[in-house]
Amino acid sequence: GERPDHQSRSMAITKKEVWKALETVVDPEIPAVTLIELGIIRRVDMDQDRILVAISPTFSGCPALHVMQEDVRRALSGLTDLPVHVEVQLSPPWTSDFISPAGREKLISFGLATPPIHGGDIAGAIQAPVECPYCASENTTRKNSWGPTPCRMIYYCNACQQPFELFKPL
Fold first, then answer.
1. Strand pairing of 84-88 and 51-55?
2. pLDDT tens-place string over residues 33-55
3. Three-state helix/strand/coil letters over the chain
4. Are the CB atoms for 137 and 131 separated by under 8 Å?
């Protein structure tokens, strides 16, 4: 008899399946949170020839950029034989306002303080009190504007005496 027409794997994948696979891609420097939760993955475009994933790094010179691109490609490689392009989108630039509520909770659980939603008032956000991720005290002191990565600052909690990092308001 006649063989039924089989749809190719590349045609069978949906945008929803792509987003679901991308939910597994964690930040290489903060593995407690995903690139989606950080707001780094900006969009997914698909056609019959390719999948395009646009990402916006926290800094244009982010040292983990190539790792993130490769991790996105790897997450999608088992789903389809379509080529996956990971495009860096610098405009509009990433802002800490893009971090989802779930991402903020995970950062705090990881021991990183989160910046306030600032709507572009970065100067105001930098002056805002920083809540300790360990004891929730606002009796904290900035020790260094540069942490182990360009997107973090070092703080000290005067209440529980724990050092901690703040994800910079950007």
1. parallel
2. 999 999 999 999 998 899 999 99
3. CCCCCCCCHHHHCCHHHHHHHHCCCECCCCCCCECCCCCCEEEEEECCCCEEEEECCCCCCCCCHHHHHHHHHHHHHCCCCCCEEEEECCCCCCCHHHCCHHHHHHHHHCCEECCCCCCCCHHHHHHCCCCCCCCCCCCEEEEECCCCCCCEEEEEECCCCCEEEEECCC
4. yes
What is the strand order of the sheet 41-46 is part of? 41-46, 51-55, 84-88
**pTM, full prediction:** 0.87
User: What tens digit of pLDDT does each residue of 139-150 get?
Assistant: 999 999 999 888
Of the candidates 10, 22, 19, the one whose C-alpha atom is nearest the C-alpha of residue 81 is: 10
